[in-house]
Specification:
There is one protein chain. The chain is mainly alpha-helical. Helices cover about 45% and strands about 5% of the residues. Helix 2 runs antiparallel to helix 5. The longest helix is centred in the C-terminal third of the chain and has 25 residues. It is flat and about 55 Å long.
Length: about 180
């Protein structure tokens, strides 16, 4: 048995800092690791394989399947950030899956409003929402209006519009082919 040299508390493994307690994933308060997501390169390799197959086979139907897969990826599967502005004006940095989705129910309501505005539809004001923006609960003051909080970034807006146009093109091609 080795005597404690005084640098480590009893029961502390050697080489571990006494100021930083060791965390285990199983106990309460331990660090939680977020599940790893597949790399975006895997998706793009799949899209490239479908494009190569469409060219090699000379089949526009395979190209449509690739386009439809890309649209689904942009709408619901791309690993991205929430990016909804908080009431203080900062963009939310929580992870979200797909450009249509946000990190939680409150941010999803804000993002749904932004998507409605992108489609050209405004939300009707109800008795609870008569003012021009969101009211901060603690002070009753409008911090950042709902229209500003729900703005989509330019890349998100462009990719959502491209994915919507691609989906419409695929549906139109399928309907035309069925005739």
């Amino acid at each position: 048995m080795v005597a404690n040299s005084g640098g480590q508390p009893p029961g502390q493994p050697p080489g571990e800092s006494p100021s930083r307690p060791r965390r285990t994933a199983g106990r309460k308060g331990g660090s939680r690791r977020r599940p790893r997501r597949e790399p975006a390169a895997a998706w793009w390799a799949g899209f490239a394989a479908l494009a190569a197959a469409a060219v090699w086979l000379g089949s526009w139907r395979v190209a449509l399947v690739g386009l439809l897969g890309w649209c689904l990826y942009q709408f619901a599967l791309v690993p991205t950030l929430c990016r909804v502005l908080t009431p203080q004006g900062y963009a939310c940095a929580e992870r979200a899956r797909g450009r249509l989705f946000a990190c939680g129910p409150e941010h999803q309501r804000v993002k749904n409003g932004a998507l409605r505005r992108l489609a050209g539809r405004r939300r009707r004001r109800t008795a609870n929402h008569d003012g021009p923006g969101d009211v901060h609960d603690a002070t009753g003051v409008v911090v950042v209006s709902g229209d500003v909080r729900g703005r989509l970034t330019s890349p998100d807006r462009a990719l959502l519009l491209l994915a919507a146009a691609g989906t419409i093109a695929v549906v139109a091609a399928i309907v035309h082919d069925l005739r």
